[in-house]
């Protein structure tokens, strides 16, 4: 079961890779899927929302919380 | 005096911000200027090339060494 979060500021594949790497560094076991068009990031592997927030914001993107 | 490095994979402002943040985290005092068109990053503040490499690669971009 993946948790999906809104992430603002991702506009290209480089951004997607950057966010994926940032989450992977704080949560090595996570499977991360970025949907650029939707502006969302799905994280699988039981990662705390706070950890995702820290990774996303640390990489310079906007964390918009859990996607509806 | 800034040191300028080639960085591959940056294609938009989000990438630029991501690389800037990554360098800033490993070298808090550095002044970072990204030139997207040239694919270069200028780092001011006496930061070791190895530190820049680590930050750039950690963020998911390609470190191409010192720009000519």
From TrEMBL, chains A, B:
Keyword field contains Metal-binding: yes
CDD domains: HMA
Domain of life: Bacteria
Pfam families: HMA
Record-annotated membrane-spanning stretches: none
PROSITE patterns: HMA_1, HMA_2
Alphabetized UniProt keyword annotations: Metal-binding
Molecular function terms from GO: metal ion binding
Residues of the signal peptide: none
HMA domain mapped to chain residues: 1-64
Protein name: Copper chaperone
Gene source species: Azospirillum brasilense
